[in-house]
Every structure is written in structure tokens, then in C-alpha cells.
Amino acid sequence: MKITRTEIPDVLLIEPVIFTDSRGWFMETFNEKKFLESLKTLNVAIPKSFVQDNHSCSSKGVLRGLHFQASPYAQGKLVRVVKGAAYDVVVDIRKDSQTYLQWFGIELNCTNNLMLWIPEGFAHGFLTLEDDTHFLYKTTDYYHKESERTILWSDPALSIQWPELGGYIVSQKDSEALTHDEVLI
């Protein structure tokens, strides 16, 4: 696997090695030893172990986020799309960070097979670009309802440039979310 830093240095882009032949293809989607060695090489903090896997399926135009869990239940996430395509966005919400409130977005799809490592301290969301998009993510802590937080996906102060699709399908919870300054008080 090839791991590179994004514009937000602690958020990493992971490109798996894909082996192809006449039968199809094979790729290793996670290898803890290689992952941790790469993080050490890049001088990135070593996360807690992954404890939960999640899988969502969405139709085109579904916008989920921006979600995170507050401490002490903060989660690191390793995310990927196994069917379809999504525009994935992370926002740095670590108040002491040099990249505080900066965002990074990238298309993850079943053709490029890219994965994104999102450490604790980031809000996360995605917009599905195709029907029947399957989004998988591993988390470093269990879901804890009382610690769940949502920042408004269209918070003007963040200026996230979501792809134009002629409208989005947003849950009531996500559409009624607070802005970052209201959530991060």
C-alpha cells in the first residue's frame, strides 16, 4: 500500500496495491503491521486499534455529515467506497491545530479504490455521486450516542465546495445541525 499525506498532514490517502490477471483482481484492504509502520515512517500518531466496522448504502445525492464523536469516545476512521462513488470530506476540529477548520475533500470510488485515514479530531461527511453507493469505515472506538455531534454540512465559515448535483438528500438531523462555533464551544 502507498500512503501519502493530504493538505492536512494527519489525514492520509491510502492507495492499495491491486493484483490483476485474467480471473479478476485482488487487493489487501487492511494490514495492521504495514499501516502502523507507514504511520511511524510519516511521523503520524499511532491510533487505537480498530474496534468496529460500519457499512452504509445510499442513493445518489445523499449527503451525510459532518459527524464526529466527542472525547472520550472520539473515533479515528479508515474509510473507503466498495461500490459506487462518494465525495468524502474531513474538517479539522482540533482547536490547537495549525490546520484548524480547514477541510479536505476527495472522490473515493470503486475504480480508484482509494482509502482515507481520518484521525480523531476531525468531523467527517460524504456526498454520494452514484446510486447504490456502498461506503465502509473502520473506527477506533464504538458508537456512543451521547457523544455524537454534527456540524452543519453547509456551515458558511467552512466554505466546503460540495459537488453540484442539483440538490442533496439530507437527513433531518443533519439539516438541523449547528454551525462549528456552536458545536465546538
From TrEMBL:
Keyword terms, alphabetized: Isomerase
SUPFAM superfamilies: RmlC-like cupins
Pathway linked to the protein: Carbohydrate biosynthesis; dTDP-L-rhamnose biosynthesis
Domain of life: Bacteria
A Pfam family this chain is assigned to: dTDP_sugar_isom
CDD domains (UniProt xref): cupin_RmlC
Site (Participates in a stacking interaction with the thymidine ring of dTDP-4-oxo-6-deoxyglucose): Y143
GO molecular function: dTDP-4-dehydrorhamnose 3,5-epimerase activity
Entry's Gene Ontology cellular component terms: cytosol
Active site: H67, Y137
Catalytic activity, EC: 5.1.3.13
Main EC class the enzyme belongs to: isomerase
Catalytic activity, as annotated: dTDP-4-dehydro-6-deoxy-alpha-D-glucose = dTDP-4-dehydro-beta-L-rhamnose
GO biological process: dTDP-rhamnose biosynthetic process; polysaccharide biosynthetic process
Similarity field: Belongs to the dTDP-4-dehydrorhamnose 3,5-epimerase family.
Assembly notes: Homodimer.
Function summary: Catalyzes the epimerization of the C3' and C5'positions of dTDP-6-deoxy-D-xylo-4-hexulose, forming dTDP-6-deoxy-L-lyxo-4-hexulose.
Protein name according to UniProt: dTDP-4-dehydrorhamnose 3,5-epimerase
Species of origin: Pseudomonas deceptionensis
Lineage, broadest ranks: Bacteria, Pseudomonadati, Pseudomonadota, Gammaproteobacteria, Pseudomonadales
